[in-house]
Design a protein that fits this description.
Two copies of one chain form a homodimer.
Chain A (H helix, E strand, L loop, with lengths): L2 E6 L7 H16 L3 E6 L5 H12 L5 H8 L1 H16 L4 E4 L6 E3 L8 E4 L2 H8 L3 E5 L2 E3 L5 E3 L4 H13 L3 E6 L4 E2 L11 E2 L1 E3 H12 L4 H9 L4 E5 L7 E4 L10 E7 L2 E10 L4 H11 L4 E6 L7 E9 L3 H15 L4 E4 L2 E8 L7 H12 L6 E5 L2 E7 L3 H11 L18
Parallel strand pairs in A: 1-2, 1-9, 2-6, 3-6, 9-13, 12-14
Antiparallel strand pairs in A: 4-5, 7-8, 10-11, 13-14, 15-20, 16-18, 16-19, 17-18, 20-22, 21-22
Chain lengths: 418, 418
């Protein structure tokens, strides 16, 4: 008898029929004798509606109250799914984050899990009752509701799996698995049966949006085996495993892209040590996450440009922060480019096979696509291009790396939110 | 500087415009220097939608999960109204029942307040922050969410006013006050400027539905001064005061009616002591509230009919309970009449002026309306008639007791939910 965490995303609980369907899947695993812990998102569209209410109420919503409003959607689903299970004669009860509690930090709207008290859940499981837990929510140190940011129910699921020592974390989504690229742009994209945490981490953070970035980080840290399934069809999904469990044969695993960042260039930053640290420190304090950093700091020069990318939604905070810093640091002009797209090639073999990097630059050059920035990691090369060329770049690279399959599996199910 | 509890009902927070409007009313009282505690209902229609979800999920919802689902609507409004106040530069923060907490008993879907911990609210008020509290909700002894039944936000408001020792409890509703009758049926109905707790108690429990019955009981017990206002117009509303504060001049204060009960007759109940107690005890245990009881127990007879009315929605439980009792008590047939309406004449002078009772019977007799049952209290006479005659009866009695005014104030705003 295994302990499995099952998480149902928004489209998997979009209406009462979907909720009944989710209940049937839970009943199926339950009858196989597994102990189950269920995590739910809000019904599809509900969180968007709630965010719309917030934005219609005030142009500058405080995150504490934003969290109160947007976390209510999950509460509804947890109650309804518990009722649907009870209707199938299965013992179930809903839990909100504050009841468990799932304790987080103070960072409203993008809180991080501090710890999860498992005693109430373990007691519930021992009584043969399936806990149905509202995802996305947490409880702050001062007893207020927090949320984890969009897709945050994945975080709840993986954190619970880690805390409870679950043998598996199954994420039911509106996609049948992880693809080599967005099938809406690359019709020949293939579903991956297995992928490493490290790769999916890069894929998730780069806009594939199949999985919440931080959920994967958590899964990786606690070695939680994660599987991504479709709620709407029978399929093997994609299994996410440790890098060492993957053979070396597969080199490039996917091409991803995102449109949601802005590139900021500070034209003249002094090369004194501590200056960049001060800039990035101040941005971090303002809650702005910096992604790519393009800084060619030549010792021979006093001043050099510093470029970096951030999420476009963080632009107001970033600009306000830079405005303040400019007085003390005097880094020249601040140039903002919101017309960029980031394309990333992800694969384990990237660093150890230098010709793969060459393929990237050659392919883009052949298409006449200008590269506005480059960032590399162990398993990823990201390039910044003008957003008009993003789709062309993704398709060209997908072919160049011979990722094209016969035909994509159900590409219409693949959701990219840019 | 007075402490005032302000409660905004569903239509008063129906959309973002209404929420902004409520925020302006709060801002107005705030600027006059009053300390305010705000209670909110769910946006109009939201609770109905949630109940619909529950009923679509399972034919027999368990009240624990029902409460989880339906209490979410208030959470949304509390957050949005706090945001709207913050947008007006007024310090505010939302509270859910579990955060305060508002402790109740275990009776899900119709919980009763046990106690309210005021320390967090008092601390908040001392900091100059307006607490915006989700109405309708409570926290059970086992840490689960409870609700107070429809209109339960009134209970939250009055209970808070009592616990905090507020000098006033203002209820903003979609009516401009309490009327002598339903203006949709009696166009000449008049708004009452003042009415006693006792009378409004009778009016509320009889279907006027302007005020939640139990909220008035609470207000009466703790002598909380309550005022009913319209959210949509400037008016003096109706003030609810103690009976002894009302002069003797006004005798009959209103005629109410309701269509939502069923009459049950047990044809042959033995006159042994304890039998009726056993019947009503079992119904109470099953959560069925018995309203009128019509029992003419003649000592000379062994068996006599026992009739009583209950809420129509409780009929399944009542019938199941009676079925079980029938085995031991053998009370003959169970006759159910769902075609009844209850008409009530409410007024302080009723008992002390016997001619007023005569007016009731004479008026109905003149109209040829058959009386199916009578129940009396200190300030009320209720009669049961066939529901086809309900409106005729109300209008005739309204005239007979000379309650007709020149023309009703905004009768379209008067809401009767039968």
């Amino acid at each position: 008898m295994a302990l499995i965490v099952q998480k149902f995303g928004g489209t998997s609980v979009a209406d009462i029929d979907c909720i009944q369907n989710a209940a049937r899947r839970i009943a199926f695993e339950h009858k196989r004798g597994h102990q189950l812990v269920v995590v739910v998102s809000a019904m599809a569209g509900v969180t968007d509606q709630l965010i719309q209410y917030v934005n219609a109420t005030t142009p500058h919503p405080r995150a504490e109250e934003y969290d109160v409003v947007v976390s209510s959607g999950e509460q509804v689903t947890s109650g309804l799914l518990a009722l649907a299970l009870q209707n199938f004669e299965i013992s179930a009860r809903s839990f909100q984050a504050w009841q468990i509690p799932i304790r987080t930090d103070h960072l409203h709207a993008k809180a991080r899990v501090n710890d999860i008290c498992t005693s109430l859940l373990e007691e519930t499981l021992q009584q043969g009752i399936i806990p149905v837990i509202s995802g996305f929510q947490g409880l702050s140190p001062s007893g207020r509701m927090t949320t984890f940011g969009r897709g945050g129910s994945d975080i709840t699921a993986v954190a619970l799996a880690a805390a409870l020592g679950a043998s598996r974390c199954d994420l039911y989504k509106d996609v049948s698995g992880i693809y080599t690229a967005d099938p809406r742009i690359v019709p020949t994209a293939r579903k991956l049966d297995r992928v490493s945490y490290e790769e999916i981490l890069e894929l998730a953070s780069l806009g594939s949006q199949v999985l919440q970035h931080r959920a994967i980080e958590l899964a990786m840290s606690y070695r939680v085996p994660v599987r991504v399934f479709s709620s709407f069809e029978e399929s093997t999904g994609t299994e996410i495993v440790h890098e060492d469990e993957i053979m070396e044969k597969a080199l490039i695993h996917g091409i991803t892209h995102t449109h949601s960042e802005a590139k900021i260039t500070l034209t003249q930053v002094t090369s004194q040590p501590g200056v960049t640290a001060e800039i990035f420190g101040a941005l971090a304090d303002a809650g702005v996450t910096v992604d790519m950093i393009i800084h060619n700091n030549l010792e021979s020069r006093d001043l050099s440009p510093l470029a970096f990318t951030i999420a476009r939604m963080d632009l107001p905070q970033a600009q306000a922060t830079l405005q303040k810093l400019k007085i003390s640091l005097d880094f020249g002009d601040t140039i903002v480019d919101q017309m960029t797209a980031k394309i990333s090639v992800v694969g384990i073999g990237l660093r150890t096979h230098p010709h793969l990097t060459g393929t990237l630059f050659r392919t883009l050059s052949q298409r006449g696509i200008e590269i506005l920035g480059v960032a590399t990691s162990e398993i990823k090369i990201s390039i910044l291009v003008h957003q008009d060329f993003a789709e062309l770049a993704v398709r060209s690279l997908h072919s160049a790396y011979q990722l094209d399959g016969e035909t994509a599996e159900k590409p219409m199910l693949y959701a990219v939110k840019a």
